[in-house]
Amino acid sequence: MNGIMKWFVHNPVAANLLMVMLVIGGLVGLQKVGKESFPSITPHQIEVSVVYLGAGPEEVEERIIIRIEEAVYDLDGVKRVWGTAREGIGFVTIEGLDNYDMQKLLNDVKARVDSINTFPRLSERPMVSQPVFNNAVMRVAIAADLPEAELKEMGRRIRNEMAALKGVARVELNGIRPYEISIEVDEFTLQKYGLSFNDVAQAISRSSVNMPAGKVDNESGNIQIMTRGQSYTGADFENIVVLRNEDGTRVLLSDVAKVVDGFTEDKFMAHINRKNAILLNVNTGENPNVVAVSEAVTKYVEEELKPSLPDGVEAVIWDDQSEGFKSRASTLISNGLGGLALVFI
Prior knowledge:
- By secondary structure, the protein is α+β, with helices and mostly antiparallel strands.
- The chain folds into 3 domains: about 45-130, Alpha-Beta Plaits (2-Layer Sandwich); about 135-175 and about 265-335, 2-Layer Sandwich (Alpha-Beta Plaits); about 180-260, Multidrug efflux transporter AcrB TolC docking domain, DN and DC subdomains (2-Layer Sandwich), CATH 3.30.2090.10.
- The chain contains 11 helices and 15 strands.
- It has helices at about 1-10, 10-30, 55-70, 100-115, 150-165, 185-195, 195-205, 235-240, 255, 290-310, 320-345, and strands at about 45-50, 80-85, 90-95, 125-130, 135-145, 170-175, 180-185, 210-220, 220-230, 240-245, 250, 255-265, 270, 275-285, 315-320.
- Strands 5, 6, 13, 14 and 15 form a 5-stranded antiparallel β-sheet that branches. It has a 4-stranded antiparallel β-sheet with strand order 2-3-1-4, covered by helices on one side.
């Protein structure tokens, strides 16, 4: 070591060249380093969720949670399993062992869950995923005194435009309720037509569905035939035929029930400046750059979005994580330059 130090002392040009090379290499590497306020976290966990509308927490636990836990607890790589039952939905979390291949565990869990054939008939298809906790770069709020459906569609359009900006990996739309079509059946009206609740349910199941109808072979090739009868709007459901009489008259669903094309009964609502609001969380992907993404989103909001919004609609940027990153980076750079100055002195 002493020999190397003596050589650099007698060859100052080489020492200066090495220093310049190190500085240049650091500046080049700085451009490739991800810039984020907090690191993204991928936990060693697999999450299984099953929607079971209308069921209470106890029923969800007995008919959903326990069956999933019994199916996956003995898989290789599983550290522990726990479940959470809520009204209408159940979650099961599988924690993997450290250093175990989580992709393999994810595939194994999917295979086990898909093999369960004892779920309730009215439950929805299980969703298996590995959660990734990304920190939002910034949030954009859209506030307006508009109907909820119109505000939601506006938010979807803005989300798609923001997701196409350079550096933006995903834009989450929050503060909104999912669409829901509810059918409120009148018991006295059913008795009037001689119908039961099951008759109505079966009529909806038969009519609101897409089904393959085979294929036709000809000289030009194969033609796939499919009947498309899936109902998507309230008007579609209202026109479903519940009963056909011998004289040719028909009883529609709208004659025996009230069809409400609206939203779920969630209690969460967002407001800004006393106006209904939706929230858009902007997230980055691999090799993030919070400063560049923040600048791109801010430019889009100020130069494109705000001029195009109708009167009375506000776009507000808040919780910009790039501000904290700039502050910490400025402190780091100033301390580094101070240390470099002391070296020369």
